[in-house]
């Protein structure tokens, strides 16, 4: 039996280079990364294996959000990583996963294109500028893992496997449903205008859409919020969202290939320019090494494209080279908008900075294939004397994208520094935290400065106080929480029968009004420099007079791994 995938010796060098490129572009500052946004809610930092097993069992039996894999892997990685070395080990695993995806992209394109072109495709995957969340741990182990399954499914399909592509499709759906969309177009890699091809295309499409339909039914039966929210839109509204996403998504993600090199020039630090210089040198050496090899211009599978209306046959010395390049480009261009078919849950797909750039992740592979096909056509048609200049220009361009991602890395480092400073002060100023505590942050002046590519203060900040200590009986409806004071927040407080009530803002589901004692309210003010201080005495919330007194005694609880991350111990 032939293996689904094998790595020949000539492919080791390009794959090794892609691993280096991923390290420089996304994980060079790995030692200074922390936790961000969704990580706090969905990522497990637990040394207690019994608790970890309970969480894994819950994910397997309850299928949360219809994505059990995206809950199982983060919990398992969090436990194993924190047990063996903390966040550094976890980030190493994330680095290996992102690098693997770039390598799989190379191997997929290598089936139909020269090693040089496949390497360019792998670089385009690695440096895809529309997505700024490759560093975000939860997105690595919940979404990027879905792309891993999709890439494995595509490689299995082009190798003629009949069952394994759909096993991988199912695994992708249980990770993050949109990542399966590139697999929907797998037959295009073997495009032949024949009845046999059309029958295979229809069968493949029917199976993939059937799997997607099954997952929608499962998620709907479980009352999953995003699927249930689809019912809030009329059929016309939903159709408009889908059709507009097919245009706006590809347009925005294509646009980032133009604007992000400019962003690099405008925002880069000296360190970013140095990294870009190193990246340029390594990229040029790698591409130059691949270009002169005769084997680099031989594809392992040839295409032909002949119809009654159009006949394209390459006159190149390599049989089928032009038609192969055109086919690759065509596949990428069709796959790009298809990748946004299910983006109506994060509509519109136009975000280019921050956590919600994950809406573009499914288009990463389409972009890589499109760029690989485009560059291949350019290489075919340009004169030999211009090929070296082409490699230099490509190396400069990719080094600027790598420099941009270094800027993103720096923002992640800044975000973690801000978070550690903020939460360390909260811990020191509020040692009396308990399940009923409500921390209210009052901005002094403009207040806190947030970061651009990943937030230091986000929706997940609400839940972090409940994760600092192991407080018994803590739950979603009974836990310590933190909010920034706003006009809308103040309106959630009211008085009845000389008792204070409030309705917590809904963060992850509906909340109910509950009584709250002034002694449970902790008010902290933060200035423009991020310094906090605790306020006592008389104050007003929604025109309700309160007297916040300094606690005389409180109960202490065991510290969690989150406490140790913030306090640096």
Would you give an account of this structure?
A hairpin with a 4-residue loop joins strand 1 and strand 2. With 569 residues, the protein is an alpha+beta fold. It has two domains: 406 residues, no CATH class; 138 residues, no CATH class. The strands form four sheets. The protein has a four-stranded mixed β-sheet with strand order 4-3-8-9, with helices on one face. It is globular, with a radius of gyration of 26 Å. The longest helix has 46 residues.
- Count of helical segments? 17
| Backbone CA Rg | 26 Å
Strand percentage, roughly? 5-15%
Which spans of ≥5 residues are poorly predicted at pLDDT below 50?
294-298, 310-317
Structural class: alpha+beta
Placed side by side, the strands forming the largest sheet appear as: 4-3-8-9
Key traits:
569 residues; three-stranded antiparallel sheet; globular; four-stranded mixed sheet; 11 strands; 8% strand; alpha+beta
Short description:
The chain contains 17 helices and eleven strands. By secondary structure, it is an alpha+beta fold.
């Amino acid at each position: 039996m032939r293996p689904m995938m094998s790595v020949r010796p000539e492919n080791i060098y390009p794959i090794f280079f892609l691993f280096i490129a991923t390290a420089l572009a996304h994980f060079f500052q790995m030692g200074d990364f922390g936790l961000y946004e969704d990580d706090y809610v969905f990522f497990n930092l637990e040394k207690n294996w019994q608790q970890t097993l309970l969480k894994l069992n819950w994910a397997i039996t309850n299928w949360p959000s219809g994505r059990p894999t995206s809950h199982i892997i983060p919990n398992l990685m969090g436990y194993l990583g924190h047990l063996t070395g903390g966040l550094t080990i976890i980030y190493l695993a994330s680095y290996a996963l992102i690098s693997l995806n770039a390598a799989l992209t190379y191997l997929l394109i290598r089936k139909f294109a020269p090693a040089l072109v496949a390497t360019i495709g792998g670089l385009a995957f690695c440096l895809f500028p529309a997505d700024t969340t490759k560093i975000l741990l939860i997105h690595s182990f919940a979404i990027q893992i879905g792309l891993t399954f999709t890439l494995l499914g595509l490689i299995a399909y082009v190798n003629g496997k009949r069952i394994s592509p759909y096993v991988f499709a199912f695994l992708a759906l249980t990770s993050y449903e949109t990542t399966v969309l590139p697999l929907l177009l797998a037959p295009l890699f073997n495009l032949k205008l024949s009845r046999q091809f059309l029958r295979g295309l229809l069968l493949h499409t029917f199976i993939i859409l059937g799997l997607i339909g099954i997952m929608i039914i499962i998620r709907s039966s479980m009352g999953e919020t995003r699927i249930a929210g689809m019912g809030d839109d009329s059929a016309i509204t939903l159709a408009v969202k889908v059709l507009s996403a097919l245009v706006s998504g590809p347009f925005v993600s294509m646009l980032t290939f133009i604007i992000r090199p400019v962003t690099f020039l405008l925002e880069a630090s000296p360190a970013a320019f140095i990294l870009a210089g190193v990246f340029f040198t390594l990229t040029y050496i790698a591409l130059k090494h691949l270009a002169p090899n005769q084997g680099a211009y031989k594809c392992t599978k040839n295409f032909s494209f002949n119809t009654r209306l159009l006949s394209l046959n390459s006159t190149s010395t390599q049989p089928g080279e032009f038609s192969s390049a055109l086919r690759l480009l065509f596949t990428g261009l069709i796959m790009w908008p298809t990748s946004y078919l299910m983006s109506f849950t994060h509509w519109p797909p136009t975000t280019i900075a921050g956590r919600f750039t994950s809406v573009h992740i499914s288009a990463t592979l389409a972009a890589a294939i499109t760029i690989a096909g485009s560059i291949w056509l350019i290489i075919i048609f340009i004169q030999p004397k211009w090929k070296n200049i082409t490699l230099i220009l490509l190396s400069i361009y990719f080094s600027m994208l790598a420099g941009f991602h270094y800027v993103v890395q720096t923002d992640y480092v800044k975000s973690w520094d801000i978070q550690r400073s903020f939460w360390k002060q909260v811990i020191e100023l509020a040692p009396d935290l308990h399940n009923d505590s409500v921390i209210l942050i009052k901005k002094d002046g403009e207040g806190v400065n947030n970061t651009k590519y990943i937030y230091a203060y986000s929706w997940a900040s609400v839940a972090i106080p409940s994760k600092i200590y192991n407080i018994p009986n803590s739950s979603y409806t009974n836990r310590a929480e933190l909010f920034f004071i706003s006009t809308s927040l103040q309106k959630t407080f009211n008085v009845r029968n000389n008792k204070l009530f409030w309705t917590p803002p809904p963060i992850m589901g509906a909340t109910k009004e509950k009584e709250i004692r002034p002694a449970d309210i902790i008010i902290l003010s933060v200035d423009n420099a991020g310094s906090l201080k605790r306020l006592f005495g008389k104050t007003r919330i929604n025109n309700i007079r309160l007297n916040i007194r300094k606690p005389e005694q409180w109960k202490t609880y065991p510290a969690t791994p989150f406490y140790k991350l913030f306090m640096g111990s």
